Each structure stands twice: as structure tokens, then as C-alpha cells.
Amino acid sequence: MTGGFVQGTLVPVLYLGSAVLFVLGIKGLTRVRTARRGNRLSSLGMLLAIVATLVQLGKVDYRWIAAGVVVGGVIGAVAAVRVAMTSMPEMVALFNGAGGGASMLVGLSILWLEVIEPGTPRTAASVMNPDSALSTALSVLIGGITLSGSVVAFLKLQEKLLPGRPVLLPGRHVANAVLFLGALGLGMWAVFGTSDLGLMGAAAAGCAVASLLLGVGLVIPIGGADMPVVISLLNSYSGMAACATGFVLNNNLLIITGALVGASGIILTKIMCTAMNRTLVNVLFGGFGVAATTAAAGGGEYQNVRSYSAEDAALALEAAQSVAFVPGYGLAVAQAQHVVRELADLLAERGCKVSYGIHPVAGRMPGHMNVLLAEADVPYEQLLEMDKINPEFKQTDVVVVVGANDVVNPAAEKQPGSPIWGMPVLKVWEAGTVMVIKRSLAPGFAAIKNELFEYDNTMMLFGDAKKMLQDLVAELKQAAAA
Ligand code: NAP
After folding, report:
1. What pTM was computed for the model?
2. Which CATH class is domain 298-481?
3. Higher pLDDT, 180 or 278
4. Active site residues
5. What is the pLDDT of residues 185-205, one digit of tens each?
6. Which residues neighbour 349 within 8 Å (Cβ) at sequence distance 6 or greater?
7. How far apart are CA 444 and CA 434, in angstroms?
8. 464: Cβ below 6 Å to ligand 1?
9. Distance CA 221, CA 168 (A)
10. What is the CA(243)–ligand 1 centre distance, in A?
11. How far apart are CA 230 and CA 286, in angstroms?
12. From ligand 1's centre to the CA of 329, what distance in Å?
């Protein structure tokens, strides 16, 4: 193979194949059924990208590459195998941070390599071309924000070194604005403004430090429970940083993948914001999560709550032709996914139509319920998204709400002024009977009263979700045997 063919044809073809695989991978991830395949396609795309880059570079010291592959591969594999499903947001935060940190370091090292050579003094832009110089500054800026913001998000979720609650420092908005303008100004000055190498190095370092501080300043006011939205946003930032780095390195694939990650991260952030009834501006300017905490005051007393036993509930289930399960955060806490499936199977055996209503922000991370139910091998076709199942509730005999609260709260539709007013919810109250399994009348994440518990067609089944579902299974088995 001639060098011309390798560089002119083979490398671009490998890069193109890799980009196509990334696009197909992301498309696959949009559906539960195709998600695993999507993941595999993206991994293959990554492998092609690495091979193409190594071929393009030609002479490299493969010992370093091999060491990196082994160390990174072992860390990634061990982390992926050992991570608990509920700790996934922490792991994603760390991975985002690593992406942002890599972009920041590439930006700084390119500046160093390109400019710090003996010769006549010049600005970075005169050496690199203005576009690359601008991208270098942006790589450092966005990469720095992503790195420190992700580390803070990780620590807040861990609640060891940092508290999970919002830390609201006085004057934080002004401080963040100053840091942003400072980081931007220093970055621009480093690449465009000075031909003095010492000053340029100092400005670049200043840009990195200000960006790192800005990442802390942006994420620290946000409550730990809101972190999944922030992590999704930081994921988008890491994509933007990678995209900027792609311009620095003149690498089209990095530009494409960075743009894919940046766009998909921002789309997911938007979906989560809509589903949680928050605006993107809220997220961008930080400080949210406070609403949920302060809303706790609006708890309110309950009247007319009817509590039933598993035996009563089993009678209603036996008579039902159609049953929909609506899982929420309590299902994850109780680890009741296997027993919910067992109950659903028993009902299906009796000829009952079974489905599951999945709210986009049920639980504490995107896709939380899908992952849990997939773990219990619930058939994909039984999982119905909110828009699909909402019109069906009117024809459903029984809805069993398992540890969900906010995502089935009618206040979102019926109480203007409620903190969740306008949030799209699962209209379970439209079904014939609603069974709510939870341990008490305690509120959910939004810390507000849920009048569903007082509705005439609601049966409250107080207890741990797993235990209550096991009791229901036992009752149904007993009835079948009798
Ligand atoms: P939720 O509103 O937080 O309510 C969960 C309910 O589960 C609680 O009321 C609790 O009541 C019950 N529960 C806890 N442990 C239980 C157990 N062992 N057995 C039975 N019940 C148990 O949950 P959700 O309806 O899933 O709503 C999710 C909330 O989280 C939304 O407000 C959403 O905006 C927010 N959020 C979601 C994400 C995401 O990405 N999914 C991210 C951040 C925030 P008891 O204590 O009485 O049992």
C-alpha cells in the first residue's frame, strides 16, 4: 500500500465508516429494543476511529498507545461491571469530566507545541490560522468548565466531600459572569492578543483556571437530586469541547462526534427539562433544585384517604380485563422490578391485557424505569411511553402505581400555581381504579401533596413495594389454586 493511498483514501474511508457507525449507534440508542445494538455499533465506530488515527499518524510509539489502551480498557471495564444502576449518573459525570479534561489539555498542549519554538515572536493566531486559534481557546474554556463541573456533580451525588443540597453563595451570578468574561478574555488574549510567549502562557493558564472555577461556580448551587439534568448538560458541553478540539486538530471525525454528543446532550437536557417542568434558562443559570426544596412547605393535610389490604386489591385485579403498571422511584428503592413482572405474568396468564406506563423522568435518571424493567425481562412491547398510554387510561380497568408520586400527580393539570403545574404527567386517575403502592403519604421528589391519594377511585396500598407486590402475587396464586 502506498503512503498516498493510505492517507488519501484509506484513512478518509475509515473515518467515514466510523462516523456512519456513530450516527447509526445513536439512532439505535433511541429505542429500548435496538439500544444494545446501537451501543455495539458505536463501539465498533470508536475502534475504527482509533485505527484510522493511528494509521494517519504513521510513526507513533505504540508502547504508549498499548499502555493507554490497557489501562483505560481495564478501568472502563471494571467500572462498567461494578457500577450499581443507581450510581450510573456518577459514572457518566466522571466520563464527561474526562472528555472535557482531555479537550482542555489538547488545547493547552497544541498552543504550547505550535507557538513555543525558537524564532521570531508571533501570536498564536499568526502561527495556527485564526480559526484553529479560536477553537483552541474554546477547547480550553469549555473543556475546563466540563471537567470541574462534572467533578462537582460527581461529588454532590456521592454526598461525601460535598453536600447534595444546593450551596447558594451570595453574589454567585456576578462571580460566574466575571469568571466567564475573564476566561473568554484571557483565552482570546492568549491566542490573538500577545506575541510575548511568557504572557501568552500565563493568559492560557489563566483561562484554564478561570474555566475550572466557573465549572465549580455553575454546578455547586444545584441540588444533588437535580444532578441528572446537569450531567446531561455537561455531556453536551463535553461534546462541544470535543468539537472545538476537532477544529484544533483538523480532525473531521472529532468534529462530527463532538457535534453528535453536543446536540444529543442538549436534546436530552431539553426533554428532561420539559418533563420536569423547568426551563433551560433555569438550568443554564444554575440555582435550580431550590424550587423543589422550598416547595416542601406546600405539603398539606390529607383527608378521605382509603387504605386497603393486599387481599382487597387482589379481588379487584382478578376481575380486571386490563391492568397498567406505572413504576416510579419507589420501584427502584424497593428493587421490586422482578416481582412486578411476576404479578404482570400472572395477570397475563388469566387473559388480562398488561402494559407499563413509562414517564420520561420517573425515577432519578433518564431511562431509569426502562433499565430496571429490562433487567426483569419485561417484554419491550409492553412498555408504553407517556403519549402512547395516556389516551388508553380511560379504557383501563386498573392502574397499579408502584412507588411513583410526582409523575402521576393531577396537580400538574389541575392546580395552577403548583410547583409542577404544566409538567406532563401520566393521567392514571382516568382509569377505573387506581392502586397506589407506597409506604406512607410522604411526598416525592417535588415535595408536594398529591390529591390522587384522596380520589374516590384510588385505593392506597401502604407498604414497601416489593413486599406488597409479593403479597398480591401470593393472593392471586391462592385464588388460582382454589
Ligand atoms: P417521586 O415523586 O420521587 O416519588 C417516589 C415515591 O416512592 C415516594 O413518594 C415514596 O413514598 C415512594 N417510595 C420510596 N421508597 C419506596 C418503597 N420502598 N416502596 C414503595 N414506595 C416507595 O418519584 P417519581 O414519581 O418516579 O418521580 C420522579 C421525580 O424525580 C420527579 O419529580 C422528577 O422530576 C424527579 N427527577 C427525575 C430525574 C430523572 O432523570 N428521572 C432526575 C432528577 C429528578 P413513601 O416514602 O411514602 O414510600
Report:
1. 0.79
2. alpha beta
3. 180
4. 406
5. 999 999 888 888 888 889 999
6. none
7. 18
8. yes
9. 5
10. 36
11. 9
12. 4
